[in-house]
Design goal:
Blueprint: E1 5-10, H1 16-27, E2 30-32, H2 34-44, H3 48-55, H4 60-74, H5 83-107, E3 110-113, H6 117-121, E4 127-133, H7 136-147, H8 152-171, E5 183-186, H9 192-205
Parallel strand pairs: 1-3, 1-4, 2-3, 4-5
Helix pairs in contact: 1-9, 2-3, 2-5, 3-5, 7-8
Length: 207
């Protein structure tokens, strides 16, 4: 049968969001990204920005600042959250997000972008897991052009490192592989419209 859910995992600068919206439009499916955060926040009784912060891995600079803050807590400086408590809170937030991804998949008829949906759901009937990727050079160029970011290379490098850390910590995946997905689309070669067509065709014949 055709896939009722398409999960799109994307690297920064690979244009996965654009591809996902095109796929949703052409298949007549709901596009789901920020709604995952909104649902999880409502279910957990927390602010959406707290969940977003928990899901997104922090830059090295930010981690250093927080480690210094935690050290201050140990010496009696008030107002900082110990690292162990923060880690437990982030784990709880991610569990909420993962539960919502599973809920959306059960409802069906959706394109889920990001939130490690492919890993959360795993191989199953009716779900097509897609990785939208591109070379680092292409992704850096796109980030720099789209955001006027002179430090685009650092942003892409940090995003890739955060992705590795995320999969390792929460899915016990040491290295992300092409075999974690049913389809890998390289947007070095395909424009978003072409990438979407490849995914739409594959979703139509996916078992």
């Amino acid at each position: 049968m055709a896939a009722r859910v398409v999960c799109i995992s994307r690297e920064l600068g690979a244009e996965g969001e654009t591809v996902g919206r095109l796929v949703a439009d052409r298949l007549g499916l709901q596009y789901v990204d920020e709604e995952v955060i909104a649902r999880a926040a409502e279910r957990g009784g927390v602010e959406e920005d707290q969940l977003t912060d928990s899901e997104q891995r922090k830059s090295r600079v930010r981690r250093v600042v927080e480690l210094l803050t935690d050290a201050g807590t140990a010496t009696g400086v008030p107002g900082a959250e110990p690292a162990s408590l923060r880690a437990a809170r982030e784990d709880s937030h991610r569990a909420l997000i993962r539960a919502v991804v599973a809920e959306v998949a059960e409802e069906g008829d959706a394109v889920i972008v990001a939130h490690a949906a492919s890993m959360a759901l795993g191989p199953r009937d009716g779900v097509l897991r897609v990785l939208v990727t591109a070379s680092p050079e292409t992704r850096i160029g796109r980030v720099a052009a789209a955001e006027g970011d002179a430090d685009a290379a650092t942003r892409v490098r940090q995003s890739d490192a955060a992705r590795v850390e995320y999969f390792k910590r929460f899915y016990d995946i040491e290295r992300e592989l092409a075999t974690h997905y049913d389809l890998v689309v390289n947007t070095d070669l395909f424009a978003p419209e072409q990438a979407a067509e490849v995914i739409v065709h594959t979703a139509g014949v996916a078992a």
